[in-house]
Amino acid sequence: MASEASSAPASDCATPASDIPQQNGAPANGHDPKGHGFFALALGAVGVVFGDIGTSPLYAFKEALAAASHDGVTRGEIYGVVSLALWALILVVTIKYVFFIMRADNKGEGGVLSLMALAQRAIGRRTPVVFALGVAGAALFYGDAVITPAMSVMSAVEGLRTIPALEHGVSNQMVLLIATAMLLGLFFIQSHGTAKVGLLFGPICAVWFAVMLVLGAVHLGDTPHILKAFSPHYAVSFLAHHGFTGFIVLGAVFLTVTGAEALSADMGHFGKKPIRSAWMFFVLPCLMVNYLGQGAFALATLEASERAGVPFPELNWFFEMAPPMLRLPLVLLAGAATVVASQAVITGAFSLTQQAIQLGLLPRLDVRRTSETQSGQIFVPQLNTMLLVGVLAIMFTFQTSSALAHAYGLAVTGTMVVTTCMAFIVMRRMWKWSLPMALCFLVPFLALDLTFLSANALRFFSGGWLPVFIGAALFLVMATWVRGSQILSAKTRRDSVPLVDLMEILRARAPHRAPGTAIFLTSDPDMTPVALMHNLKHNKVLHERNVILTVRTAETPRVSEDDRVKIEKVNDDLKKVTVTYGFMESPNIPKALAVCRKQGLKFDIMATSFFLGRRSIVPSANSGMPLWQDRLFIYLMRNAANPTDFFKIPPGRVVELGAQVTV
User: Fold this and answer.
1) How wide is the angle at C-alpha 251 spanned by C-alphas 157 and 303, nearest 5°?
2) CATH architecture observed for domain 31-482
3) Global pTM exceeds 0.85
């Protein structure tokens, strides 16, 4: 069953940018992060934006060095791994994201779907290439959202094995049990909102980064010649002399920059300057010093092993850097930091889902507000359950963070390739950069992204298939929903009566009049809504006042209240009302209709009936999609949230009139 109001294809749900009033760079609806203290925003960014990338030192250096040490470790290999890590942070995060991608904001908002909407606006229409890139990037993000909590939390819990008293007492089953308990607690608190917990995010991560800085600095002071790793010569030399092994190590080194997408995705919450400042003056130095410290510790360990004539040990370098008596507090702090990183990814998945629903890429889901004041505080129960099941399933499938590391990079590198391509479109079409200038951005960064993508693709059969499988499944769902909605909308339009023709019919044969106001929700205001036709056909009545209501989604994150409602008079009996929301806003029809009173359209909502066209969808082998895809579309339709709840319409005022449609 499907509501007519929600069956429009994504292209019909989004009003062209030229139709939406622009607001000179600031986000609409008063959404301006500058209203908060700069330091508070920077501290919040440390927790939310950099939570994921901030936990990478737990496993990135360990996995990269392990990949390089299959035939023993040399000093040159340690220098090479550290150099690769440092230059990955400099090139990918600092230059690409901080200096380029963060400039491509959509009214202050970032993220892959915001960038897709911006690219579409730059071109002036939806193109298959931009649409496919945006959907692919969004789908791959969900793969990352499933892997990050499992990877981060397991890495922290495995640190218990570095505590001398627990060295042999912490089994793999115990690690899984503790990680499961932490993740269950994390997902169960989502329904209560994260506002209070979020207040701790910044301070916890600030302490975490400070501890990483101190740990790294201590060992850096003992072996200062590791600073030579800043020279790119060591990174290039390592790759040149290690061939295929170097490529494998490069895939592990990419773990140092997982979470870089958050810089762009969370721009709307914190603003560009606080995020950039937090990265340049605090987060980046802490990460660099810690990786240098791990490299220095590895060099010292190598020298000690050579003197003792024993093999080079494979250690959990991050935790082993700390004195034994401080490892338990460090494990507890790491656990808190990984929970913060996981929370940031979960919140990002909720926000991305809301955007996808508003842009017509996914069916309606139950999106609940968990805060009266913070628009970003939302909870999506169905997604929360699916993420929890997915996280636990892959955790028990892979069982160790080292095994899961093989699955981690492919989704992130895929999203980065998408981001680079769409940023190129924005630079060419919106910023009017010359082709040579735009290529100066595209060629080096796309080459870098594709190199990392190829390196991670080598891990496809050992775990990389997982995010690809999740991304492909989500891509199929989104593509099916969009295509099915287009077919349904086109068929409905063919079978409907144009509104101008209905006016002629009503003049020739006036129906019986019922008192009050009737509001008919539809996705196509130029055609007579199915519910209105059924009301005339079966009940043979027309209300005294009739409103054709269409809800549209703009290609901007938010729309100001002044531009929320547009009223068009058809005749004395009929008016068209268009309510526009940004793709980061949740529809609230009664609240929007209250704005109509200011524009002269007055009615009592408790004396108003809302008519929804309810469709029963029947699959057909002769439609535009294969039969199996028809059935998938019907399944999505049946499991979509009730339009009454989604649009916040009073349930007692809703009348549903149904029809059967073949797709």
Assistant:
1) 70
2) Up-down Bundle (1.20)
3) no
